[in-house]
């Protein structure tokens, strides 16, 4: 009590003295006073309240529980860092005036953050000239916060710990100095500037926070000599800042603004603002900053091979376009792996590893419209956010990414016109999700084991295409549409999902579900719930645990041409599902075939179209007509099929045979070709196949008939390759028809020599069935053989002929007519007639038909022309289509097609478009399919998503039994030129249906195997004699064959070091044979290797004991029809010491002109000498070095030389500004061989622009 009285008396006395002092003075200034706390005042605020401007308040050590407001210019000095505890209530110190000093305090627990923004020290708006120094601030909202218009303040030498918001924050304030501060462990930024310019931030240390953040037009600041530990710099809409000599984790902080053409290879963090053509490569940027690399309004930059881990964003793009983010490792960041915002367009994100980030792997931020970006070949896995998250983005390409084990795979919100293709989205909460997103293509993706749906569209996601995806074992639906209309779901494989295969609900209307394979799902195959006007067509749906298709409250849908097999219920309609049309479905072996409890649906399409095929229908087909009362069968049951459900629903016209379902036949390995027809004249059709079953030398090759009996195929071998045609013959062609016009069909078979330069004989053979068995008749004999044949009235004389292509040194189009007991040959034309020197040719296919719709047949032939470079290297010049017409007793030829640098491989005639106009359809070696219509004289391409390799056969027929024709195409199983016969590529069977003036494509079979396995031939017809067509296709592979003529033996070593010689073999299924090939009485050596391998084969030649030095030998390797001469007429004395070496890829020709090109980015577009190496992946021919000059320049190349260590090479010079002056032409073409290393030297002049684009090659 006495102490309190003393203070009170003191206060009264002071007041009295002060009043007395002012009594007789009009103006006077009080002298500065030093006040002590707690000596003079128990509380700091009392001292402040009783102090005058200019006074100093010294606060002694201790703890004070206060929120101090400085409203006059005072100096507050702490002794031994007294603690001011705000107790979670507002600020520690708040300045509302100018020219204050706060020094030497420990301020704590002003801990409230947003929205109150409490700070340890708060500088109110408009306060200037204050100094805040040497303080310790802990556990506050902001450590220090400066409000708008507070300028010219100094914040220095403070230590700020554990701020719940920022260490230091400036809002709308300028010309402040922030230096020598230490800021540790802030939850947000160490130092953040908002709308604050012209400040100096220097020599500060920021650790374990987000570093320094310049945002919202914080311009013209000077940021120098700061140290960042586990943090860095962030910039948003702030420019013209001077940022230099800062370090991040001991490495330079690289900040570039308005810089072009620099390269960064060593940095702790990289910020690019308004930069162009910057390369950032090979940096380790694990800095725990807001972002490791930021591109702001920057373009043309390459971010390559960097590690960006443990940051906020891994890589951040704002308003940045045309950049490439490639081959970076972006992992364990706190937010996104890569973030694009503010209309960042035309960027490429490729080959990055983006894993274990706390947010999305890749994020396009909302409302920012970052369009036209490419995201490809990235691995995006184990992110806590989505794999790819896109908002308000359009025209993007998202391909070939792996998005596994994220919270979601690929998710688009409000995004359109993008392609999502060939991605793997497994083990996410959802595979691919679209919300409010339209006109996108989702194709060829794999969505497996997601905890939600494989593919999910919801909230008005419309006009999207979902095609060729695999949705497997997802925990909900394979594909689900919710409140989404006008989408197409086609050609997907949807299997083993926990709920439905495909589900549409919540008023998802006007969708199309077609050509999908949906099987073994835990509930329904297809489920329509509150969804109408859907087309469900051509789907195969089997083995689902509940319903094949279920409709609940769903009306006006059309369900046709589907197959519902082995489900609990095939088709199930309930809950007021009405006015649905259900017809032309195959409903087979379901526990309950169908259920309809409304009775208001249509289960057939009237007469004569019919209803559905029911496997349990036991009615008869004796009558026909709408009332089934006319004698004669029509393929429709005479009595209706009744539908379960108690509503009287029925199929009035049940089908007697399955509708539109292609019949699957096991594909026959090593089979060359196939035909369907009544081969034995018993009234039923058979399948005839010709194949190689022996040792690839013709021994054991056979012709077989397959008959469908008692629901299984049975085979009869009717003919084997005659011994006189051994070795190296193969059955090359087959057809069924009345070739000799005797009223009975014959099987016509052609043989051909394989791969050995035409050694031996070949035949054209007729096989006829009589009471004694199959009778062989030789029609013709040839040196090389028959490539293709057909039977028909080729010359329009009312009688059939055999037309064929004879191969050899001269290829002929020939025909055979049976006159009496003899077959008469006619040479329609030799293809050699218009072939120039140094060229070769190959006729590939032939057919008979009315190609020009004039009522008469023509013969159509495809031909390829090659330029010969050396004995084993050819370049395709053109592929031709010829039409041969028999007019005025002679054959006239017309060329209707010429395809430069392509090979025409297969040809047919038919009404493929179903417009009663026959067209010529042609397949090419690059996978193209073309059609030609005579009246227009135009060729049109048939588009494809599947074809990648050469077409091997092409047919027109009713493939799916819908009473319309389709186009059927088979493709190769090896890569088109440049050849790689050793890598397994898929060989395809494809159907093309011309609907609504466009072609639709369906893949019905795919085979992959060793040694260039591919589909060789196909046939369409009623193979099972059940009243509907089947498709039969055959596949084969080609062995590697080595032949040495006597008198030598061989030792061959394969790429794995396995050996075959005359006495033993280590190579699986390989054989060593000795056969007299050339009729000289001596055995030649033949090695057959069924499955060639990639890499070098070596062949050691050993003279036989009786060989004389002057004897000669030849050595050749063949693959299919192509042959490589390793030695030709070489003397025994000249056998090389080293083995012959080759790769199987050396055997096969290139069919396109390849321009010497070392790839993009090999050398710069400047004058100078440029040296390097090239290792071609295939044989290429070189004749010219192309230069593409920049506009307005005379860019050209002065000199070029190409050579290697064993070849002196070729060189060429520029010949001045004349003729083709941009380019350099070599004196003669030469070949660069695959997988050999060559050196080049190129001298450029006049600043040429080097371009690498397909259209320039």
Task: Write a structural description.
With about 1250 residues, this protein is an all-beta fold. It has six domains: about 35-250, Single-stranded right-handed beta-helix, Pectin lyase-like (Pectate Lyase C-like, 3 Solenoid); about 525-665, no CATH class; about 670-830 and about 1015-1035, 7 Propeller (Methylamine Dehydrogenase, Chain H); about 835-1005, YVTN repeat-like/Quinoprotein amine dehydrogenase (Methylamine Dehydrogenase, Chain H, 7 Propeller); about 1040-1145, no CATH class; about 1170-1250, no CATH class. The protein is built from two helices and 118 strands. The chain has a 25-stranded mixed sheet, with no helix packed on it. Strands 29-31-33-35-38-41-44-47-50-53-56-59-62-65-68 form a 15-stranded parallel sheet, with no helix packed on it. The chain has a ten-stranded parallel sheet with strand order 1-2-5-8-11-14-17-20-23-26, with helices on one face. The N and C termini lie far apart (about 105 Å). The model is unreliable at about 1-30, about 695-700, about 755-760, about 870-875, about 975-980, about 1150-1165, about 1190-1195 and about 1245-1255 (pLDDT under 50).
């Amino acid at each position: 009590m006495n102490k309190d009285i003393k203070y009170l008396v003191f206060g009264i006395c002071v007041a009295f003295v002060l009043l007395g002092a002012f009594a007789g003075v009009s103006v006077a200034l009080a002298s500065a006073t030093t006040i002590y706390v707690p000596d003079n005042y128990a509380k700091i605020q009392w001292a402040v309240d009783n102090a005058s401007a200019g006074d100093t308040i010294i606060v002694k050590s201790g703890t004070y529980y206060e929120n101090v407001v400085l409203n006059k210019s005072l100096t507050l000095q702490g002794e031994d860092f007294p603690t001011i505890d705000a107790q979670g209530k507002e600020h520690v110190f708040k300045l509302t005036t100018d020219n204050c000093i706060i020094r030497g305090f420990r301020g704590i627990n002003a801990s409230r953050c947003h929205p109150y923004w409490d700070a340890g020290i708060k500088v109110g708006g408009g306060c200037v000239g204050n100094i805040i120094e040497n303080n310790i601030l802990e556990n506050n909202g902001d450590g220090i916060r400066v409000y708008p218009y507070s300028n010219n303040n100094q914040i220095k030498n403070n230590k700020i710990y554990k701020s719940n918001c920022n260490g230091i924050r400036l809002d709308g304030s300028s010309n402040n100095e922030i230096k020598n501060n230490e800021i540790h462990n802030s939850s947000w930024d160490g130092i953040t500037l908002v709308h604050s310019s012209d400040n100096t931030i220097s020599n500060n240390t920021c650790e374990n926070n987000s570093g320094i953040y310049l945002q919202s037009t914080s311009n013209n600041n000077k940021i120098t000599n700061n140290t960042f530990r586990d943090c860095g710099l962030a910039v948003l809409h702030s420019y013209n800042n001077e940022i230099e000599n800062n370090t991040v984790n001991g490495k330079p902080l690289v900040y570039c603004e308005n810089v072009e053409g620099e390269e960064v290879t060593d940095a702790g963090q990289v910020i690019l603002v308004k930069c162009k053509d910057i390369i950032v490569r090979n940096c380790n940027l694990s800095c725990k900053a807001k972002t490791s690399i930021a591109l702001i309004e920057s373009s043309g930059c390459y971010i390559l091979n960097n590690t960006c881990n443990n940051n906020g964003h891994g890589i951040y793009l704002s308003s940045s376009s045309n950049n490439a983010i490639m081959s970076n490792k972006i992992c364990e960041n706190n937010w996104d792996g890569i973030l694009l915002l503010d209309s960042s367009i035309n960027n490429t994100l490729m080959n990055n590893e983006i894993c274990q980030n706390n947010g999305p792997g890749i994020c396009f931020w909302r409302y920012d419209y970052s369009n036209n970006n490419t995201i490809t070949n990235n691995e995006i896995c184990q992110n806590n956010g989505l794999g790819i998250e896109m908002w308000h983005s359009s025209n993007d390409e998202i391909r070939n990414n792996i998005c596994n084990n994220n919270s979601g795979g690929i998710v688009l919100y409000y995004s359109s016109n993008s392609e999502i293709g060939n991605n793997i989205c497994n083990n996410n909460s959802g595979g691919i999700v679209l919300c409010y997103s339209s006109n996108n293509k989702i194709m060829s993706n794999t969505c497996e084991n997601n905890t939600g749906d494989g593919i999910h569209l919801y909230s008005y996601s419309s006009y999207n295409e979902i095609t060729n995806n695999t949705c497997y074992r997802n925990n909900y639906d394979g594909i689900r549409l919710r409140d989404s209309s006008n989408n197409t779901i086609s050609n997907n494989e949807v299997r083993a999902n926990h709920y439905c295969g495909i589900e549409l609900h919540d008023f998802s209307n006007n969708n199309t579900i077609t050509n999908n394979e949906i099987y073994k799902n835990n509930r329904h195959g297809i489920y329509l719930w509150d969804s109408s006007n859907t087309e469900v067509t051509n789907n195969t749906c089997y083995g689902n645990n509940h319903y094949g298709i279920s409709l609940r409250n769903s009306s006006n849908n059309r369900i046709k041409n589907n197959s519902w097999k082995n489900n609990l219920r095939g088709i199930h309609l309930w809950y007021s599902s009405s006015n649905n049309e259900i017809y032309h479905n195959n409903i087979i072996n379901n526990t309950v075939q169908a259920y309809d409890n409304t009775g208001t649906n249509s289960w057939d399409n009237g007469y004569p179209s019919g209803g559905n095929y029911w496997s349990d229908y036991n009615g008869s087909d004796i009558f026909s007509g709408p009332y089934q009362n006319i004698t004669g069968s029509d393929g429709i049951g005479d009595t209706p099929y009744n539908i379960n459900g108690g509503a009287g629903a029925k199929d009035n016209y049940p089908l007697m045979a399955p509708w539109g379902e292609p019949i699957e036949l096991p594909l026959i390995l090593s089979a060359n070709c196939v035909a369907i027809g009544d081969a034995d004249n018993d009234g039923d059709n058979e399948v005839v196949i010709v194949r190689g079953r022996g040792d690839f030398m013709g021994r054991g090759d056979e012709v077989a008939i397959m008959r469908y009996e008692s629901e299984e195929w049975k085979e009869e071998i009717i003919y084997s390759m005659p011994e006189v045609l051994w070795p190296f013959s193969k059955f090359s062609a087959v057809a069924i028809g009345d070739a000799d016009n005797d009223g009975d069909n014959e099987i016509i078979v052609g043989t051909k020599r394989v791969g050995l330069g035409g050694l031996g004989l070949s035949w054209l053979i007729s096989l006829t069935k009589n009471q004694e068995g199959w009778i062989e008749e030789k029609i013709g004999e040839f040196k090389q053989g028959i490539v293709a044949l057909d039977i028909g009235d080729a010359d329009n004389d009312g009688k059939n002929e055999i037309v064929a292509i004879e191969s050899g040194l001269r290829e002929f189009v020939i025909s055979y007519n049976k006159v009496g007991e003899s077959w008469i040959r006619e040479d329609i034309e030799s293809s050699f007639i218009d072939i120039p020197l140094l060229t070769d040719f190959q006729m590939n296919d032939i057919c008979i038909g009315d190609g020009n719709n004039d009522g008469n047949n023509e013969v159509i032939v495809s031909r390829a022309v090659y330029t010969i470079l050396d004995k084993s290297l050819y370049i395709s010049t053109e592929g031709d289509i010829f039409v041969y017409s028999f007019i005025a007793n002679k054959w006239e030829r017309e060329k209707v097609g010429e395809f430069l640098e392509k090979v025409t491989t297969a040809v047919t005639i038919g009404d493929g478009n179903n417009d009663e106009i026959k067209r010529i359809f042609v397949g090419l070696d690059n996978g193209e399919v073309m059609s030609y219509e005579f009246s227009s004289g135009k060729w049109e391409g048939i588009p494809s998503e599947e074809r990648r390799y050469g077409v091997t056969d092409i047919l027109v027929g009713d493939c799916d039994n819908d009473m319309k024709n389709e186009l059927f195409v088979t493709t190769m199983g090896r890569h088109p030129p440049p050849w790689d016969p050793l890598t397994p590529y898929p060989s395809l069977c494809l159907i093309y249906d011309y609907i609504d003036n466009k072609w639709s494509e369906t893949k019905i079979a795919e085979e992959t195997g060793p040694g260039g396995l591919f589909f060789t031939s196909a046939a369409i017809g009623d193979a099972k004699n059940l009243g509907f067509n089947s498709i039969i296709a055959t596949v084969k592979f080609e062995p590697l064959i080595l032949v040495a003529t006597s008198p030598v033996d061989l030792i061959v070593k394969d790429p794995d070091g396995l050996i075959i010689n005359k006495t033993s073999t280590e190579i699986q299924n390989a054989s060593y044979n000795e056969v007299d090939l050339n009729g000289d009485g001596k055995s030649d050596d033949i090695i057959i290797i069924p499955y060639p391998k990639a890499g070098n084969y070596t062949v050691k030649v050993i003279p036989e004991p009786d060989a004389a030095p002057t004897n000669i030998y030849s050595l050749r390797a063949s693959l299919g029809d192509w042959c490589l001469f390793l030695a030709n007429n070489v003397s025994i004395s000249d056998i090389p010491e080293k083995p012959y070496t080759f790769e199987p890829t050396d055997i096969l020709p290139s069919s396109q002109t390849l321009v010497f090109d070392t790839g993009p980015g090999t050398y710069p577009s400047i004058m100078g000498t440029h040296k390097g190496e090239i290792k071609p992946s295939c044989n290429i021919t070189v004749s010219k070095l192309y230069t593409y000059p920049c506009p307005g320049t005379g860019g050209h190349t002065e000199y070029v030389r190409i050579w290697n260590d064993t070849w002196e090479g070729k060189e060429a010079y520029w010949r001045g500004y004349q003729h083709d002056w941009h380019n350099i032409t070599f004196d003669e073409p030469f070949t660069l061989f695959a997988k050999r290393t060559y050196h080049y030297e190129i001298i450029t002049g006049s600043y040429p622009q080097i371009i690498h684009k397909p259209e320039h090659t």
